[in-house]
Amino acid sequence: MQPEVEETFKELNYDYEAFYLVPKDWNEDERLFEITREKLLKGNFSHVFSINYSSIIAEAIKSLNKDILYINWNHSVPFETRNLEGLNYDFNRSFIFDRAYTNRLLEAGYKNVYHLPLATKIRDIAFKNPAYTYDVSFVGSMYVSEYKDFSRPLSQNLRGYLDGLVEFQCQLNGGNIFNDCINNELLEKINGEIIAGAGRPLSETDVVEDLKSASGFAGYSKEQIYYLLSREATKRQRLLALMLLESRFKTALFSKDEMQELKNTYMGGYIDYSTKMPEIFRNSKINLNVSLSCIETGIPLRVLDIIACGGLVLSNFQPEIYEYFRPDEDIICFNNSEELLAKASFLIKEDSFREKVIENGLEIIKKAFSYKDRVEAMFGMK
């Protein structure tokens, strides 16, 4: 997103200065705080823009007492940071691609959060004749999570309960049950059993400070458990889909994660987003999308990018998709494993139908998903 946003700033004649820093810890990074504060002190800036919300940037702006708006466009949910106080600062404007998560924040009392779908850029390769290499490709993470290590210290009953939640989530097509199921009682039970078993957190930077124990493990937050279970469910969903597809079609996986369970899938490893990925999208008859379970309603960036590269996307259903795309005309979605196989079998044989769907999808992208429209919408809000 960052290169496309900068291109759009130039197209709109926005005067901007870019600097690139990845926080060591999304909750606290003194270096990022000081660098941001120093730049804003020395410069004459009216806005700060970031891809994804940063509480560190919000606190740096607050410390200056200057008339600066903080605009952040979020392509992942939930937010990385646990500190969401800055969402209520008057200068904050947070734009989120998933309506369900946006509404949850509003219901929790947070202000200045707005629903805004993502955008994409149509690539030249979309108009070139495809040279098909694979029947089905998937580009993305397989979310080989820490779930096994996390659940190892838990009792058989609690581990079985969590496994049941994950399996139930795997059967859903849209929505996420974990937010409602992870209550304080369950959270205390999980942390209590891990502490009793001398467990350790997934990351020393992700501990919850008010749950200190003699073991040195502070405890998991609800957000951590939610994200961990969502990743595990997504891994299982993606693995099942690829196992079904590889049994019938020439299938490829392009990911940093190698999956030993996939015996007949080509492992292409990590590929560059801007150079190699468009070629894979255009030269695969079908590009699979199985959304991260945290994305309850929104259209993932992968879906838009596949279409923008002239690829045919076969996606699990996401409610917001049909707000823009006509089913089986502009995009193809599946609701279960049976539909996945049936639609894949049809699409692989029907070249002209695929190209018509791609053509229709590109028209929707042109009309409704440009970076220019999104940037103007964000910066036009007072």
List keywords for this structure.
alpha/beta, 3 domains, 6-stranded parallel β-sheet, Rossmann fold, Spore protein YkvP/CgeB glycosyl transferase-like domain-containing protein, 382 residues, 4-stranded parallel β-sheet
Question: Can you offer a commentary on this structure?
Answer:
This protein is α/β, with parallel strands linked by helices and 382 residues long. The chain folds into 3 domains: 2-116; 124-143 and 234-368, Rossmann fold; 147-229, no CATH class. It is 42% helix and 12% strand. It has helices spanning 2-11, 30-42, 55-64, 99-107, 147-151, 156-171, 178-181, 184-196, 222-246, 276-282, 301-308, 337-349, 351-368, 371-379, and strands at residues 47-51, 69-74, 92-96, 113-115, 134-139, 251-254, 265-267, 284-289, 313-316, 332-334. It has a 6-stranded parallel β-sheet with strand order 7-6-5-8-9-10, with helices on both faces. A 4-stranded parallel β-sheet has the order 1-2-3-4, with helices on one face. Helix 2 (30-42) crosses helix 3 (55-64) and helix 6 packs across helix 9. It is globular and about 60 Å long.
Strands in their spatial order, largest beta sheet: 7-6-5-8-9-10
Question: What is the count of structural domains?
Answer: 3
Ends: how far apart? 23 Å
The average pLDDT value, as a whole number, equals 91
Percent helix, as a range, is: 40-55%
Principal-axes shape call: globular
Q: Which structural class is indicated by helix and strand composition?
A: alpha/beta
The CATH superfamily of the largest domain is identified as: Glycogen Phosphorylase B
Which stretches of 5+ consecutive residues score pLDDT under 50? 198-215
CATH topology of the largest domain: Rossmann fold
**Helix tally?**
14
Main β-sheet description: 6 strands, parallel
Query: Could you spell the SSE succession in H and E letters?
Result: HHEHEEHEEHHHHHEEHEHEEHHH
Strand content: 5-15%
How much is the radius of gyration in Å? Answer: 22 Å
